[in-house]
Amino acid sequence: MIVNERIADYICSLDPGNGAFLDQVEREARRQEVPIIRKETSAFLKMLVAAKRPERILEVGTAVGYSALLMSRVMPENCRITTIEKFSPRIQAAKANFLEAGEERITLLEGDAEEILKDLTGPFDFIFMDAAKGQYIHWLPEILRLMPVGGVLLSDNVLQDGDVIQSRFAVERRDRTIHKRMREYLFALTHDSRLQTSVVPVGDGAAVSVKIR
Ligand code: SAH
Ligand code: MG
Asked: Which amino acids does the record list as binding S-adenosyl-L-methionine (predicted)?
């Protein structure tokens, strides 16, 4: 928890839910400990998509399709989502959820984002980066290539439950590589002259970047 727990609880208590089906997908995912988007962040994601009104969305990290379905609820009618997932059981679950939701505007690309990103042409005017945290920095050049000027990039889990502010020696050895790469990523997002970025302490930390040139 990176913000006061009572404040976070209060913010979550304001969440009106997303209808019976999506609420069920959410409950099931949390029960199975699938790392779906936090409640506070989901409101932030939906608000950004609603404000941006994108034509094409790219999501890296589908899991069981929860966040893709959230976005589909608020995006313009003619918008399309491309989402990438490499873990087979989650691919199957996501496909079943898209089917059950009757949502045909979402295309699931199966495989490693590392390979798939290189083959995409875009442009994607909204990108939700929500996969392996340690890879964000390596994927950034491809992500920037896929974004038009005015495009929005939302990167999730960038504050790593607060770990990112700890000294490298205060985080567990096995987390040090991710810690270092996430700091590099946040530095890159905030210092790249093509981007205007705000790091927001919502949920597990989110960075919103707009491509300005
Ligand atoms: N966006 C989802 C949660 C995604 S969890 C939601 O909020 O509902 C992160 C997902 O990224 C996991 O399911 C994991 O299997 C996937 N992932 C991690 N590394 C990946 C990679 N290199 N390529 C494709 N998917 C990856
Ligand atoms: Mg996430």
From this structure: 37, 67, 85, 112-113, 130
